[in-house]
Structure formats: C-alpha cells, structure tokens
Amino acid sequence: MLDSLVKLKRFSLARFSSLFAAALFLQMNDSGFGGASACAGVGCFGMIAFFVIVLAINIAILVWVQKDAKARGMDNPVLWMIVVLLTSWVGLIIYILSRPKGELVVCASCGQKRMQGLAKCPSCGNP
Ligand SMILES: [Zn+2]
C-alpha cells in the first residue's frame, strides 16, 4: 500500500516536472521566437514604413520650398532648400515668414506658377 503510494507520488512528480519544463519551453518559445517574428513582421515593417513616410514628407517639403521660392522670384531658391534641409521645420517656418507675400498665379506663357505683381516670370522671363 505504502509502496504503491510512493510510486504514484514519484510518477506525479516526474509528470509535473516534465509538464513544467514543457510550459517553460513554450513560454521561452513564445517570448523569444514570437518577439523576433513580430519584429521581422509588423514591428520592423512599421518602423521602415514610418521612416519612408517621414523621408517622403521631407523631400516633398524641400521640393515645395524650391518651387515656391522660384515662383516668388526669390534669388536663391536652392539656398532656401538647403536651409530647410539642414534646419528642418525651423527653417521652413523662417522661410514662410520671410518669403515675399502675394498670390501665386499660373503664368500665361509657360504654365508655371509665378507671384502676382512680378515684373517678369521667374520661369520663362516673359512679362
Ligand atoms: Zn512663365
């Protein structure tokens, strides 16, 4: 009677420890491989997508500054582009505050934008 009880106890202990090991393995598997696959899947892709979107917005702002400065007949649109490139949104605010104020209209000669009241079109040179 006592002998069989000891056997049962040993059996259940062995069973418990193997279950514990399996649970531990599953947990390690879950946090280890699961985390890695999440990074390779959604996490890292999300970060790459985020950086690509930020880069695309920055390039769009730089192109807009260059075109806007040219349309307003400013002497150095490329210099303004570099200022915004180096100083980011600070340069963009300085540009918007310091650019010549006025309505942009489409040039009748070349179709590019030019500021109303300019003596000649910055793109084609026509009055
Ligand atoms: Zn023009």
The major β-sheet equals: 2 strands, antiparallel
How do the strands of the widest beta sheet line up side by side? 1-2
Distance between the termini: 113 Å
Shape annotation: rod-shaped
The chain-level mean pLDDT equals 81
Small-molecule binders here are: zinc ion
Give the radius of gyration. Answer: 34 Å
Number of helices: 3
Total strands: 2
Textual characterization of the structure:
The chain has helices spanning 2-71, 77-87, 89-98; strands spanning 104-106, 113-115. With 127 residues, the chain is mainly α. 8% of the residues are buried. The protein has one domain. A two-stranded antiparallel sheet has the order 1-2. A hairpin with a 6-residue loop joins strand 1 and strand 2. Zinc ion (ZN) is lined by residues 107, 109-110, 112, 114, 121, 123-124, 126.
Summarize the structure.
This protein is 72% helix and 5% strand. The protein contains three helices and two strands. Strands 1-2 form a two-stranded antiparallel sheet.
Supply database-style keywords.
127 residues; mainly alpha; two-stranded antiparallel sheet; 3 helices; 2 strands; rod-shaped; binds zinc ion
